[in-house]
Amino acid sequence: MNEVPQLIILGSIAVDDIETPFGKKDGLIGGSAVYAAYSARLFAPVGLVSIVGDDFSKDKWKLLNRKNIDISGIQVGGKTFHWQGYYEHDMNAAQTIVTDLNCLESFEPELPEGYRKAKFVFLGNTHPAQQMKFIEQLEAPEIIAVDTMNLWIKNTRDLLVQVIRRANIIVINEAEVRELFNTASIVKAAQELLALGPGYVIIKKGEHGALMFTEKSHFSAPGYPLETVKDPTGCGDCFGGGLMGYIAKAGEVTDAVLRRAIVYGSVCASYNAEDFGLGRILNIKKKDIEARYKEFREIRSF
Amino acid sequence: MNEVPQLIILGSIAVDDIETPFGKKDGLIGGSAVYAAYSARLFAPVGLVSIVGDDFSKDKWKLLNRKNIDISGIQVGGKTFHWQGYYEHDMNAAQTIVTDLNCLESFEPELPEGYRKAKFVFLGNTHPAQQMKFIEQLEAPEIIAVDTMNLWIKNTRDLLVQVIRRANIIVINEAEVRELFNTASIVKAAQELLALGPGYVIIKKGEHGALMFTEKSHFSAPGYPLETVKDPTGCGDCFGGGLMGYIAKAGEVTDAVLRRAIVYGSVCASYNAEDFGLGRILNIKKKDIEARYKEFREIRSF
């Protein structure tokens, strides 16, 4: 590593077996940190903090060790986290068959020395205890964004709320935010989140786009009209990664920057859904990102 | 009636008993034609084609006979259509308890002489046979917009498809369009609709806003972040009425006009949800419409 990456990402690295109405693929590299990093690296250099097992193959290491991704913060030991799941025709919710946490279960994030000065960090979806341990090692963070999932809302709600209190930006999906505050109203749930501390509450709605609530304003980003969603795995992580990658590149957080960041995150997520695993986002270039960003502008213009 | 109204609306007039988590109200005036007319009249003079029973009270007639609403096309006889339903905390779908079609069952629309020259018409949600009979009496329509519901998709699909073939604009909700073409993909369903003939396919998504598909473009209108939806009854009708009211006022149909019309329709629907029955839309003024239209712009800007 030559310099501190502009964005540090915490999250899982997984080996996934995925089935959707469009096919079945086993042994795909996945996990929240990986999808987020592949999106964020299109905007700024990123550093990954995560863990893989001794079984992690050379080919998979090669996939991680790409331009703009620093892997010096990845620990090794045990067996790699494994997830198996499927999607039915309504691709909004993954159905889990197997979750083997393996080495992820006892993972204690340890930031490389240079990472501790990071200004922009994305706490991808993982156990809130790991997110908190990560935060505690930061010396002077400017923007902390946090993502989560229903599992942590159900099992470790108090700890998750503590993490959210430390965050500037929370990224959460529609069903999760309703569950977190036991309400049908997204507007009310967003207000509860703002009351916890984050200045920016971002709610992911899959094909329906994304919303942002702040104390003063409301933003609604459109969804992208994909004819076929082949595999939605990792779309939420790509959204968060693209969002924080753009923010790290911008170097500041304002309402206008956040709005553009949300659309860039949506662009990354929309590409990711077009193929299994990393298949599509792997080959996306900056010019693809800009082309679809332009389409998003046209989609919502009136 | 002094002149031919700019927009003619076909649909039902009902007496509704409604229960939501925010209360219970009986004997409310409702029906697709009424909600559509109350929204459309904010943009242009409208004429109603519908039917009520002999039991329709003076107070209810007074509510119909408002500025910018011509009621000379309303037939009288039998007993008024009655609907009873409720909504649970997820306000997206109405649960029907009672549907007494009464006089609506044998209703045969008969257009007043002046209406036959109408250029802009909105076929609100009612039996496709009534929609077809209405179309056949038009001498030179320029824009026919049609709305429908799951009941007609299930029971009279072939007839409904014939009506859609005659329409320029179809307004349909998300669940309905999926059901109509038995697909989870809204994009595919929209393409099937375009193939039937309408140049503009508009899909209502409740709190998630609305989409428009044409052969050449895609538009996504945001939803309005209402903290409380008191009663969603009639929101779809208000959307269609506001949409066609604006188009009739504009006097032409272009991609740009349609986009603005969709946002105006969304504005009407968002107000309507704020109180039971016609409670809110009844008192909405043009300046309220413009104020919220401006908010929609801000919600969407990036």
Summary tags:
four-stranded mixed beta sheet; nine-stranded mixed beta sheet; homodimer; UDP-N-acetylmuramoyl-L-alanine:D-glutamate ligase; 302 residues
Short description:
With 302 residues, chain A is of the alpha/beta class. The first copy, chain A, is built from ten helices and 13 strands.
Task: Note down, in words, how this protein is organized.
Two copies of one chain form a homodimer. With 302 residues, chain A is of the alpha/beta class. Chain A has a single domain (7-300), classed as 3-Layer(aba) Sandwich (UDP-N-acetylmuramoyl-L-alanine:D-glutamate ligase), CATH 3.40.1190. Chain A is built from ten helices and 13 strands. Chain A has helices at 32-40, 58-64, 128-136, 150-155, 157-166, 174-181, 186-196, 235-250, 255-272, 286-300, and strands at 7-10, 14-20, 23-30, 46-52, 69-76, 81-86, 95-100, 120-123, 143-147, 169-173, 200-204, 210-213, 218-221. In chain A, strand 4, helix 2 (58-64) and strand 5 (69-76) form a beta-alpha-beta unit. In chain A, helix 6 packs across helix 7 and helix 8 (235-250) runs antiparallel to helix 9 (255-272). The longest helix of chain A is centred in the C-terminal third of the chain and has 18 residues, at 255-272. Chain A starts with 6 loop residues before the first strand and ends with a helix. Chains A and B meet through helix 7, strand 13, helix 9 and helix 10 of A and helix 7, strand 13, helix 9 and helix 10 of B.
